Amino acid sequence: MNLDDDLIAIKGIGKKKYKLLNNLNLYKVKDLLTNFPRTYVDRSKVNNINEIENESISTIKLLIYDVSETKNAYKKSTLRLKCKDTNGYNVAIIFFNASFLLKKFSIGKEYYFYGKIVKTHYEAKMFHPEFSDSMYNDKKFLRIEPIYSLTAGITNKEMINIYENIIDNVLFEENLFSPYIIQNKLCDINYAFKNINLPTSKEALKKARYRFIYEEFFNLFLSLSLIKNKVKSSGGIVLKDLPMVDFYKNLKFTLTKSQEKVWNQIKIDLTSNNQMNRLLQGDVGSGKTIVAMMAMYLTYKNNMQSTLMVPTSVLANQHFRTFSDVLKNFNIKIILLTGNTKNKKQIYKDIELGKYDIIIGTHAILEEGVKFKNLALVITDEQHRFGVKQRNILSTKEKNVNVLVMSATPIPRTLSLIIYGDVDISVIDQLPSGRKQIKTHYVKKNKINDMYEFIRSKVEEKRQIYFICPLIEESEALDIKSASELYKELSERIYTKFNVKLLHGKMKAKEKETIMKDFSEGKINILISTTVIEVGINVPNASIMVINDANRFGLSQLHQLRGRVGRGEYQSYCFMTSNKMGDTSKKRIQTMIDTNDGFEIAERDLLLRGPGEILGLKQHGLPELKIGELAKHSQIFEIVKMDVNNLVQMYNQGEKASVEFIIKFIENRLSNNINI
Ligand code: ADP
Ligand code: MG
């Protein structure tokens, strides 16, 4: 039997079963064996009743001494087996409406039962347990049984039979680097496949799982290392460490200790021969922009160019305004480049001639026509909103360019390694002084009017307000109050005397810019918006964020939205409303109420969503993790990381075994259409 054999060729799999297996995406022997069990039922350990805790699940061995069946007035039957365990402990096994089981049990014989034990004063009970009847011999019953994902028409027992038919008749070729198998005491590939599907013991299952987790991380991390290797260059552009006194003098505030710390880390990168590849993390409102500006200012002083790329044109405009304003006393030439920038040809020419020092924009910066005179630094803000490809283009466009990526979404070290490769990380872990905790509340329907009144009082104190809705117009989901509908209600009915404006993604860019400008200048009291303002927007006078239909948003999005307020000296508030609440949305909203800490929120998000979705591995053409969990198995990940790094290093030095291994690895991946 071969791994590539079609399942239809297997004894016991007819056309009908084959179709059903296809429904589960199983076509070949290989598919079947790599389709790991969803979970396991461990019946292998037989316990004595007195050792078992009440309500726990266990296997016990019992002797039946009486069998009886009673029927009630509605003809419902109760089958009761009176049993004793080896210590004479009384146990009743009870089945409802299961007359067909009567013939399976004989008085005076011993059986194994597996289920939940309920203990009372004088006896123990088990309802509808699994039991060792003729279907099982004892050996089959007393084992760890795999539980597979099923489709209607196939039972778990049938699945197990198929695996049992196959497992001893195929051979996998070892696909890990053999020195690492020995070094990490990993089990052999065939042992692993056998024991992950049909474990012979708990220890064997553990060994098998460990190997597959290692293997999954190894393949993923090696792929990523090879991708990274392609774009890696040697030394970086070196800037002179020129004094920044004039910049500091010009600042309206003092940097926080944390900002100073990360600025120093960045400066060391920029002024050394190392090409900077750094991720700057800092919670919403922690003041990342100013740090970026300092790096760009130092680049300017070195007579070189830098770019700042952001995911939305609204944010690009804001950064452009901020930079132009803060740097107005210097002779720095700044240009904005977005999708709807006019006169692009001229601007491209001027950038290439070096007439601009700082280029701020959206991914329009990546367009082919854009060439630089002497680009030394590339910064992307709100990094998590960009795809892998966009991220790589900029850093490959110019050789040796220093790269800084900024993100408010803190991610565990293991995840960042996967997403960014081996970057250095700087963290701003402190908010500017004087900030007050944002007060976060869930507002019930009958309290909405109170909220409206509270908001009115704040507008009268000259504060500004955001209302966020998930959709622009009435959609098929009628329960969603769209932004335009809410706009109508608020502007025509509730806040007739205030300046209320609507902002959404489908508006023309110019229109959006004007509204955001007016809002940041305090001309608009209340802004109703879709999530176009989710990332990066900074209007410190805004102090209330109302998120409607909060159940529609993910946790990190909610935190980003809330981060639009609390950016100045005023006490700020975040109110969430929602018509419907599932369990997960309840957890998300509770998390928001519980904490303001972006790191903690990211961690809980990871637990709620799982890393696969956050990473979007599939989207990037990389295999999904089936068994490894980055959050849970970070220790294994650390080992893999070291192993892969060593392997790549040996490969770079031309060491024979590692070169052979990597060539085979690449061929294998390519023939399986896996991105590398
Ligand atoms: P984010 O990290 O979310 O991008 P910003 O860079 O937009 O945050 O900064 C948020 C606000 O805090 C801005 O108005 C900025 O001017 C202000 N700010 C930044 N650093 C400081 C500081 N050290 N002291 C006072 N205010 C600061
Ligand atoms: Mg920002």
From TrEMBL:
NCBIfam families associated with the record: PRK10917.1-3, PRK10917.2-2, recG
Catalytic reactions of this protein: Couples ATP hydrolysis with the unwinding of duplex DNA by translocating in the 3'-5' direction; ATP + H2O = ADP + phosphate + H(+)
Protein name: ATP-dependent DNA helicase RecG
Organism: Helicovermis profundi
Domain Helicase C-terminal, residue spans: 447-607
Family: Belongs to the helicase family. RecG subfamily.
Domain Helicase ATP-binding: 269-428
EC number in record: 5.6.2.4
Gene name of this polypeptide: recG
SMART domains for the chain: DEXDc (SM00487), HELICc (SM00490)
EC category: isomerase
Keyword terms of this UniProt record: ATP-binding, DNA damage, DNA recombination, DNA repair, DNA-binding, Helicase, Hydrolase, Isomerase, Nucleotide-binding
A Pfam family reported for this protein in Swiss-Prot or TrEMBL: DEAD
Any one GO biological process: DNA repair
Entry GO MF terms: 3'-5' DNA helicase activity; ATP binding; DNA binding; hydrolase activity
Reported function: Plays a critical role in recombination and DNA repair. Helps process Holliday junction intermediates to mature products by catalyzing branch migration. Has replication fork regression activity, unwinds stalled or blocked replication forks to make a HJ that can be resolved. Has a DNA unwinding activity characteristic of a DNA helicase with 3'-5' polarity.
